[in-house]
Amino acid sequence: MEIGKKIKAGDIRAASRLIRDIEDSIPEAKFTIKHIFPYTGKAQVVGITGSPGAGKSTLVDGLVEANRKRNRTVGVLAVDPTSPFTGGATLGDRIRMQRHAEDPGVFIRSLATRGSLGGLSKAVGDAIHVMDAMGKDIILVETVGTGQQEVEIINYAHTVIVVLVPGMGDEIQAIKAGIMEIADIFVVNKSDREGAGKLQRELMAMLDMSPVAAGGWRPPIVTIGNSFKPEEFEQDIGKLSARIHEHYEFLVSSDLIGDRLRRKTMHELNEALRSSILEPVLNMLVSTGELDRMVEKLLKKESDPCSLAEEVARKYLQECI
Amino acid sequence: MEIGKKIKAGDIRAASRLIRDIEDSIPEAKFTIKHIFPYTGKAQVVGITGSPGAGKSTLVDGLVEANRKRNRTVGVLAVDPTSPFTGGATLGDRIRMQRHAEDPGVFIRSLATRGSLGGLSKAVGDAIHVMDAMGKDIILVETVGTGQQEVEIINYAHTVIVVLVPGMGDEIQAIKAGIMEIADIFVVNKSDREGAGKLQRELMAMLDMSPVAAGGWRPPIVTIGNSFKPEEFEQDIGKLSARIHEHYEFLVSSDLIGDRLRRKTMHELNEALRSSILEPVLNMLVSTGELDRMVEKLLKKESDPCSLAEEVARKYLQECI
User: Fold this and answer.
1) Which of A97, A221, A254, B158 is the most buried (most CB within 10 A)?
2) Are residues B45 and B78 both part of a single domain?
3) Cβ separation of A177 and B266 shorter than 8 Å?
4) For residue B138, what are the domain limits?
5) B111 and B215: one domain?
């Protein structure tokens, strides 16, 4: 069977290998992605972002459980170097994860965040496609967030959850600086800690001051208690899961889902253009030794990067540009 | 006077305007950068990275002071959305910063982290060039770090300082996941807090296990106490300042400075190529409406991003590629 069809049929080995190939930028992966593209677009993609230590992985684990109870299949993609999914796991985390290992309705993979920024961004999008093509109902993408990465996630997710914990004063600063705009749902995690009420009030005050988003969605604030009290935790996760579902229904009923899809598509096309336009030129410059010669010129201050790049453009781009 | 010369002569207004133009991607800024490029390459560029709340700004402030006492001129570039330099300032922070406002030997500017990743990265490099051309002896670049941004900073800095604070258990995870490789100096900040000794021991253990870097530099660990005890704090900052100086001397004496320059230059050329090769093609696609038509096709699943991007490459790249 052709690999695209295998993945559509839910073949875990084929899907795992493709995600590894995507991560390692194996050229053949590109062709496989072409084949699975028609099968994509059905899953709800949920981004979960927040500082290291905010407890994102525990939430993801809870959400996996909650979705499985409703018979929804789940994909988990961890793009967080501190995530237990990715490797920085404590023993307790690992044991918790283990529960899902035998469940064919759950597919968990991680992507390393090293290497080029653009490359990672493209890999995240492609890995989501793989899980989507496998037919997962919901895909949870866990990214660590302070700055740019969590802004990237809006290019892929239908719903973005920003996870905060009490007692990290700088959270609010970070929110002011840009996370505010991307959150569809706020989670105040570890809400039994001191300062949870204050954090919640600050968030509400900020939401009150913010302009109402297109379509009138006001990000709800969900508080999640201690995961060592399983019953309460499960209840809280149930509420979060309901909010996620509501947000998707809101996107569909308000027709905003079209805007999000367009944004996702535009971003993806942009990444593809980078790899088909810029990369061949770079490869050419490397293989002919031209790149080295340019670097020497720059080190001697005989030219500047912008002038050299313009020369390259004149040489390799069609005259019409 | 021509603007490049003005900046070289230390004209603060011209430099400030150029940095704003760089940030806003004003096309003319590109030409000015060409003119100042020959005047660059003299400053020591020091990257300071760490989580929000790690106290980076207080360190930067202390380093400004320490350098001014030795009559060295200083540039500060804040690329951190939570930095007091950038706007997320408490009143105390602002008052502290204010001291330097009247000192012509100090030039402080910030860059917003919103917008495209590539754009920001290029802006950081160009803003460093401006401060370098102004003749600043040392340029301190403050970036928030969890993931990719602090890996970016190695493309610009001679010396990278990773700032950690006790009591954030996930720090060590983050280090394991990639910061370790980029740190030239570790700072254990707020070292009067509980857990400082433990953090220091863990760092040392990790350094013991790490392969010795090229040239034999072992990143020193500098502990910095409470900034509310000015005398001790000043002493600690003095030690940090000495380590920064030593690292630069090490780079020069071991001839590793050449490698770092080459890496910086290569990165910069890469960014310039992106803007001269990829951007004209994107502009063409937008102005002809071709981009919109491609997005529609993708939304209807009539094609996939990779195939469309390859068509564009065949159309706009010279046949030789």
Assistant:
1) B158
2) yes
3) no
4) 40-256
5) yes
The reply to whether residue B82 touches residue A277, judged by beta carbons under 8 angstroms, is no
Query: Distance of CA A208 to CAs A307, B64, B90, Å?
Result: 49, 39, 22
**Total domain count, chain A:** 2
Average pLDDT of chain B, as a whole number: 84
Determine the distance in angstroms separating the CA of B5 from the nearest CA of chain A, rounded to an integer.
16
Whether residues A171 and A67 fall in one domain: yes
Under 8 Å between Cβ of A141 and A45 = yes
**Residue at B131 is within a domain:** yes
- What is the predicted pLDDT for the residue at A89? 43
Query: Tell me, what's the pLDDT at B93?
Result: 54
Determine the pLDDT at residue B147: 47
What are the pLDDT digits (tens) for A49-99?
A: 887 778 888 899 999 999 999 999 999 998 865 555 544 444 555 566 667
Size of interface A-B (CB pairs under 8 A): 244
Average the pLDDT over A302-315 and give the result: 92
Strands B44-50 and A138-144: unpaired
Torsion of CA B47, B52, B57, B58, to 10 degrees: -120
Q: Identify residue B82 by its one-letter amino acid code.
A: T
Test B277 with A277 for CB contact under 8 angstroms: yes
pTM: 0.72
**Among A176, A272, A282, beta carbon nearest to B306:** A272
With an 8 Å Cβ cutoff, are B304 and A113 in contact?
no
pLDDT band at B89 (very low <50, low <70, confident <90, very high): very low
- Hey, of B8, B26, B58, B148, which one would you mutate to test binding to chain A, going by the most A CBs within 10 A of its CB? B148
- Chain A residues within 8 A of B170 when measuring between CB atoms: 52-53, 82, 88
Nearest CA in chain B to A296: B262
Q: Greater confidence, B24 or A232?
A: A232
Q: Please, which residues have CB within 8 angstroms of residue A231's CB and are 6 or more apart in sequence? A: none
pLDDT digits (tens, 9 = 90+) for B100-122: 878 889 999 888 654 444 456 67
Higher pLDDT, B273 or B85: B273
Distance CA A177, CA A227 (A): 29
Return all residues near B33 (Cβ < 8 A) that are at least 6 apart: A304, A306, B18, B22, B126, B129, B130
How far B216 CA sits from the closest chain A CA (Å)? 24
Given an 8 Å threshold on Cβ–Cβ distance, is B113 in contact with A284?
no
